[in-house]
Amino acid sequence: MTALIATPAWQALKAHYASIEGVHLRTLFDGDPGRAERFSAEGSGIFLDYSKNRITDETLRLLLRLADERGVAQRRDAMFAGEKINATERRAVLHVALRAPSGTRIETDGADVVPGVHKVLDAMAGFATRVRSGAFTGHTGKRIRTVVNIGIGGSYLGPAMAYRALRPYSDRSMEFRFVANVDGADFHEATQDLDAAETLFIVSSKTFTTLETMTNAATARAWLTGKLGSDAAVAKHFAAVSTNIAGVTTFGIDPANIFGFWDWVGGRYSMDSAIGLSTMIAIGPENYRAMLGGFHAMDRHFRTAPPERNLPLLLGLLTVWYNNFFGAQTVGVMPYSAHLARFPAYLQQLQMESNGKHVDFGGNPVDYQTGPVIWGEPGTDGQHSFYQLLHQGTKLVPCDMIGFCQPLSPLTDQHDLLMANLFAQAEALAFGKTDAELKADGSPDFQRPYRVMEGNRPTNMILADKLDPATLGSLVALYEHSVFTQGAIWAIDSFDQWGVELGKALASRIVPELGRGAEPDLTHDASTNALIRRYRRLRG
Ligand code: F6P
Asked: Residue 146: how many CB atoms within 10 A of its CB?
């Protein structure tokens, strides 16, 4: 494969950037009444207005040519065909099979994976229905009122994000909590007011070896058996989701309550696998299937929509445009929905664990920037904290702004206020306020320099009718495939995560050094040795 920066499209984009860099969005809009319509696209229930980006028709043409030269479509087809595109782990990447309708054939290693997916989905639906109806009871015969998901990373962020997002669709007679951190405070706070007889723990872990999850699962078992006075209670209060069925069985979970998935599902791409069991119990199997439908509709869109209308492709290419040509280090994600409060955190893992890489497919160091830092908070909260920097700071922060036309609360007037703010922020970021406009408004001379808003800050406006299960599925798949697009352009493996390993290994070396006995020989660097000694002295 030609080195990225040597490709003709890259070189053309570099030259083109020089001509765009100094052009203001005001100019781009002034001379082009059809711009908003031309630079917008729609698919799978999601509308994207990308006209407030610092692009022209030529930029778009060159970015699409870059996608072509980098073989994004071929790599996408290889993913859908079950090829082992996660080369460093020698695995297929088939999260798209998790939402493929029954009857679709998706093969890897010569076997169709779709029947297995539906078998697990049906088992989850049976279990979820019994828990929701009260047919599944705890050890003492009481119905389950609280579900506690124990898991971290992809085994936590997706379920926690989806529960928050879809709470209006959830069974309000039940409560859902999430324990991720190995800090005992997380488990303690999540359980200290619970009745063990009404609590179901779902231990979610792809590998079933993750330190945090295994520790919290053992704590949960001790808590439960301590409260209910019997080891036999475990069978009625624990379910597990994993690819490591042997590990789960050793833990002692009733085989009837074990839900499997496969090594071709990456942790951060697993919220629609059995890892979504807590989501399914919360919103019911029918809503869960609607969510899978939304995911699948976006998968279809990504495969079939023409490039210039292809939402994930466009979103991914625009990220590359700012990341690699404008030198933007971050992307802000601002959902104008309180229900999407955890969406930026979910996207942080999805994007930063996928594309935070420094070598290419061939194992060679890259000589260009890869994945940006992803961050964000719901609007309007962010407006009253960090938006000042977005508007008048010295850093360029491209933002995705996400909104929904219909509210999920009965307070419709407030929804108009929310949406007014969403549209106003994108307008202010793009067009700012000039000195002349401030003068015309009567702004005093001494203040005007401080009040000038330069504008020319790019945003993507992502709008959907309503935040419902199908829309959430589409939205997540939109970002999954945008991340894929970026990874394909940068020629990096978006599906491994070797960078998390060293910290885990070092922590397991330090654990015994924090034992209560005499201080062991410490052979770390001087700083780490001193920190360990200080901790041992002060921990109480
Ligand atoms: O350490 C990172 C990671 O492996 C993530 O990729 C994953 O989502 C998370 O840990 C949890 O892993 P598991 O589901 O195997 O417990």
From this structure: 18
